[in-house]
Sequence to fold (182 residues):
Amino acid sequence: MKYCSACGSAVVRRIPAGDSVERDVCPDCETIHYQNPRVIVGCLPVWQDQILLCKRAIEPRYGYWTLPCGFMENGETTAEGAARETWEEARARVEISHLFALFNVPHINQVHLIYYAPMTDGRFAAGPESLEVALFSPQAIDRRQIAFRSVLFTLQQYTEHGAATPRLFTGEAREPSPDRMI
Fold:
């Protein structure tokens, strides 16, 4: 950040009084500009023991498969955001059941929350951010074609443990993999 969004003055990096983290601070109006992690919300949509995946029509990881996920919007809960992202990317309606996976990605300032969400019917179609959308049995998913490590983690947990009992699995990635984007 170069300029204060409150008054337009150039900001400086410093630790504000009473804080312990260096932040962008306006020396004129004293506005502290906090930059916090972004919340990514999404679903593990399931229909008759198959998982709904989207082939990405956008970067990063264009052409790779992922769960329907995206940035949480202001004014919505994480569950509402997950259901919205599933509609936007896969044109599928889901019934949010429970939080299934939590994945911390500190090197890109993100937290991923994935909900287990049975589809309300078998209908789906590619939204504007998807090249195609398809149902896969867990065993038929080519793990090498999965876009993000958090999605791979979620799929592995579902394959190993199922979703009959609400569980929370956590993972963490501290460093980006050189050949994979998280």
